[in-house]
Amino acid sequence: MTRSSILVVDDEKAVRTALNVNLKKHGLNVELAASSHEALEILGERPFDLVLSDVKMPDGTGLELLTKVRSAWPDTQVVIMTGYGSIVDAVTAIKAGAADYIIKPIEKDELFIILERALERRNLRSEVRQLRAKVTERFGFHNLVGSSS
Protein backbone atom coordinates (compact mmCIF):
# COMPACT_ATOMS: atom_id res chain seq x y z
CA MET A 1 0.00 0.00 0.00
CA THR A 2 1.31 3.43 -0.87
CA ARG A 3 1.76 6.04 1.80
CA SER A 4 -0.85 8.76 1.83
CA SER A 5 0.24 12.26 0.93
CA ILE A 6 -0.84 15.26 2.97
CA LEU A 7 -0.39 18.96 2.26
CA VAL A 8 -0.29 21.01 5.47
CA VAL A 9 -1.25 24.67 4.97
CA ASP A 10 -0.67 27.04 7.88
CA ASP A 11 0.94 30.47 8.09
CA GLU A 12 2.47 29.68 11.50
CA LYS A 13 5.86 28.02 11.06
CA ALA A 14 5.74 26.34 14.49
CA VAL A 15 2.42 24.65 13.64
CA ARG A 16 3.72 23.49 10.24
CA THR A 17 6.89 22.11 11.82
CA ALA A 18 5.06 20.25 14.60
CA LEU A 19 2.55 18.74 12.18
CA ASN A 20 5.34 17.79 9.77
CA VAL A 21 7.22 15.88 12.47
CA ASN A 22 4.16 14.12 13.88
CA LEU A 23 2.61 13.20 10.53
CA LYS A 24 5.90 11.83 9.19
CA LYS A 25 6.30 9.75 12.36
CA HIS A 26 2.85 8.36 11.57
CA GLY A 27 4.12 7.21 8.17
CA LEU A 28 2.59 9.89 5.97
CA ASN A 29 4.20 11.80 3.11
CA VAL A 30 4.00 15.45 4.11
CA GLU A 31 4.51 18.67 2.20
CA LEU A 32 4.18 22.13 3.73
CA ALA A 33 2.74 25.43 2.49
CA ALA A 34 2.71 28.77 4.31
CA SER A 35 -0.19 30.29 2.35
CA SER A 36 -3.21 29.49 0.20
CA HIS A 37 -1.35 30.68 -2.89
CA GLU A 38 1.61 28.40 -2.18
CA ALA A 39 -0.75 25.49 -1.50
CA LEU A 40 -2.47 25.93 -4.87
CA GLU A 41 0.91 26.04 -6.63
CA ILE A 42 1.98 22.80 -4.94
CA LEU A 43 -1.37 21.14 -5.71
CA GLY A 44 -0.93 22.13 -9.35
CA GLU A 45 2.36 20.22 -9.47
CA ARG A 46 1.14 16.92 -8.04
CA PRO A 47 -1.94 15.38 -6.43
CA PHE A 48 -2.46 14.96 -2.70
CA ASP A 49 -4.76 12.63 -0.82
CA LEU A 50 -5.58 15.23 1.81
CA VAL A 51 -5.12 18.92 2.56
CA LEU A 52 -4.95 19.97 6.22
CA SER A 53 -5.52 23.73 6.22
CA ASP A 54 -5.74 26.50 8.79
CA VAL A 55 -8.71 28.86 8.45
CA LYS A 56 -6.98 32.23 8.83
CA MET A 57 -4.06 33.02 6.54
CA PRO A 58 -2.68 36.30 5.23
CA ASP A 59 -3.71 35.67 1.61
CA GLY A 60 -7.15 34.15 2.13
CA THR A 61 -9.09 31.74 4.25
CA GLY A 62 -9.06 28.00 4.56
CA LEU A 63 -12.70 28.03 3.45
CA GLU A 64 -11.74 29.76 0.18
CA LEU A 65 -8.96 27.21 -0.28
CA LEU A 66 -11.43 24.41 0.45
CA THR A 67 -13.73 25.62 -2.33
CA LYS A 68 -10.86 25.80 -4.83
CA VAL A 69 -9.51 22.36 -3.88
CA ARG A 70 -12.94 20.68 -4.04
CA SER A 71 -13.52 22.26 -7.45
CA ALA A 72 -10.15 21.45 -9.06
CA TRP A 73 -9.28 18.21 -7.21
CA PRO A 74 -12.56 16.61 -6.09
CA ASP A 75 -10.87 13.43 -4.85
CA THR A 76 -8.66 15.35 -2.42
CA GLN A 77 -10.06 15.40 1.10
CA VAL A 78 -9.81 18.68 3.04
CA VAL A 79 -9.68 18.99 6.82
CA ILE A 80 -10.01 22.51 8.20
CA MET A 81 -8.33 23.50 11.48
CA THR A 82 -8.62 26.71 13.42
CA GLY A 83 -7.72 28.31 16.70
CA TYR A 84 -10.92 30.37 16.60
CA GLY A 85 -13.68 27.82 16.06
CA SER A 86 -17.33 28.61 15.80
CA ILE A 87 -20.32 26.43 15.05
CA VAL A 88 -21.23 28.62 12.07
CA ASP A 89 -17.75 28.22 10.54
CA ALA A 90 -17.81 24.46 11.17
CA VAL A 91 -21.20 24.05 9.50
CA THR A 92 -20.10 26.23 6.58
CA ALA A 93 -16.94 24.16 6.10
CA ILE A 94 -18.77 20.84 6.22
CA LYS A 95 -21.44 22.07 3.80
CA ALA A 96 -18.67 23.22 1.44
CA GLY A 97 -17.23 19.71 1.43
CA ALA A 98 -14.69 19.60 4.25
CA ALA A 99 -14.06 16.11 5.60
CA ASP A 100 -13.82 17.54 9.11
CA TYR A 101 -13.32 20.75 11.13
CA ILE A 102 -11.00 20.69 14.11
CA ILE A 103 -10.01 23.24 16.72
CA LYS A 104 -6.40 23.91 17.76
CA PRO A 105 -4.62 22.86 19.81
CA ILE A 106 -5.13 19.43 18.33
CA GLU A 107 -4.56 16.27 20.33
CA LYS A 108 -2.30 13.95 18.33
CA ASP A 109 -4.51 10.89 18.73
CA GLU A 110 -7.64 12.81 17.73
CA LEU A 111 -5.87 14.26 14.69
CA PHE A 112 -4.74 10.83 13.49
CA ILE A 113 -8.25 9.42 13.87
CA ILE A 114 -9.71 12.31 11.85
CA LEU A 115 -7.07 12.00 9.13
CA GLU A 116 -7.40 8.21 8.91
CA ARG A 117 -11.19 8.53 8.60
CA ALA A 118 -10.86 11.15 5.83
CA LEU A 119 -8.26 9.07 3.97
CA GLU A 120 -10.44 5.96 4.29
CA ARG A 121 -13.37 7.91 2.83
CA ARG A 122 -11.18 8.96 -0.08
CA ASN A 123 -10.03 5.39 -0.70
CA LEU A 124 -13.60 4.05 -0.56
CA ARG A 125 -14.81 6.64 -3.07
CA SER A 126 -11.96 5.75 -5.39
CA GLU A 127 -12.74 2.03 -5.08
CA VAL A 128 -16.45 2.60 -5.78
CA ARG A 129 -15.58 4.63 -8.89
CA GLN A 130 -13.27 1.85 -10.15
CA LEU A 131 -15.87 -0.84 -9.51
CA ARG A 132 -18.57 1.15 -11.29
CA ALA A 133 -16.29 1.57 -14.29
CA LYS A 134 -15.64 -2.19 -14.38
CA VAL A 135 -19.35 -2.98 -14.15
CA THR A 136 -20.16 -0.52 -16.92
CA GLU A 137 -17.37 -1.94 -19.07
CA ARG A 138 -18.50 -5.50 -18.58
CA PHE A 139 -22.28 -5.12 -18.57
CA GLY A 140 -22.80 -1.93 -20.59
CA PHE A 141 -25.02 -1.75 -23.66
CA HIS A 142 -22.01 -1.89 -25.98
CA ASN A 143 -21.52 -5.55 -24.93
CA LEU A 144 -25.02 -6.62 -25.95
CA VAL A 145 -24.98 -8.93 -28.97
CA GLY A 146 -28.10 -10.28 -30.56
CA SER A 147 -30.26 -10.52 -33.58
CA SER A 148 -33.96 -10.19 -34.03
CA SER A 149 -36.34 -10.59 -36.92
Summed up:
The chain has 149 residues and is α/β, with parallel strands linked by helices.
**How would you characterize the largest beta sheet?**
5 strands, parallel
Which secondary-structure class do the elements indicate?
alpha/beta
Q: Which value, in Å, is the CA radius of gyration?
A: 19 Å
Query: How are the strands ordered across the major sheet?
Result: 2-1-3-6-7
The fraction of residues in strands falls at 15-25%
Q: Average pLDDT, to the nearest integer?
A: 88
How helical, in percent, are the residues?
40-55%
Distance between the termini: 53 Å
Order of helices and strands: EHEHEEEHEHEH
Topology:
Layout: E1 5-9, H1 13-25, E2 29-33, H2 36-45, E3 50-54, E4 56-57, E5 60-61, H3 62-72, E6 77-82, H4 87-95, E7 100-103, H5 108-139
Parallel strand pairs: 1-2, 1-3, 3-6, 6-7
Antiparallel strand pairs: 4-5
Keywords:
single chain, 149 residues, alpha/beta, five-stranded parallel beta sheet, two-stranded antiparallel ribbon, 5 helices, elongated
Report on the architecture of this protein.
- With 149 residues, the chain is of the alpha/beta class.
- It has five helices and seven strands; from the N terminus they run βαβαβββαβαβα.
- The chain has helices spanning 13-25, 36-45, 62-72, 87-95, 108-139; strands at residues 5-9, 29-33, 50-54, 56-57, 60-61, 77-82, 100-103.
- The strands form two sheets. It has a five-stranded parallel beta sheet, with helices on both faces. It has a two-stranded antiparallel sheet with strand order 4-5.
- Helix 4 (87-95) links the parallel strand 6 and strand 7.
- Helix 2 runs parallel beside helix 3.
- The longest helix is centred in the C-terminal third of the chain and has 32 residues, at 108-139.
- The chain is elongated and about 75 Å long.
